[in-house]
Amino acid sequence: MTKKFLAAASLAFSISALVGAPAFAGTLTNPSIGGTAPSDYLTYDANNVNTFVVPNTPANLQKVLGGDATSPTGNVEVFANSEALTPAQFAAYNQETTLQGTIGGLPITLSSLTFADWNTNNFGKTWLSAALAANGYTQNADFVVPIINKSLYTLFVEAGGLQRFSDPNFSYVNQDDQTGDITIGLAGHLDARDVVLSPTIWAIAESFRTADKKGQAVQISEVFKYNYNGQIGYGYSFSATPSGLFELGDQKSHNGNYEIVLKGVPPQSVPEPSIVLGLMGLGGLALTRRKPSQSA
Question: Is 257 within 8 Å of 69 (Cβ atoms)?
Answer without folding.
Answer: yes
